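Action item from last week, closing it out:
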Amino acid sequence: MKKDIIVFDGLCVMCNSFLKWVLKNDKGDKYLFANIQSDFYKKSMDINKSIDSIILIKENNIFYESEAIKHILKDLGKFYVIQLVLDVTPTFISNFFYKIIANNRYKIFGKKDKCELPKKNQLSKFLK
């Protein structure tokens, strides 16, 4: 089974917290992970695209911002109310709020000096 890939900001405290939550709830072992500081990201993605977004690569489609979050929540079967809100809210509106948080994430949640290393039992889930 081909796994979906979540690309995240490895220096962002909020992003790392979300990533840990996904790892904990990914019971079906559906995801691989790469941070935007990784060689995988630099070689595989259009680095001209804003890095102020989580990225989900799913079945040859690329989802950004609130669309990525919506797909991840659906795949994990979590937070149905948030899923419903994202489903009924036009994407341009949910992305507007996403961008406000993304653009201020370091101010609000903090920034790490370096990317956090995964636990030994999680190493195989991270692309380098």
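Closing note: The first strand starts at residue 4 and ends at 8.
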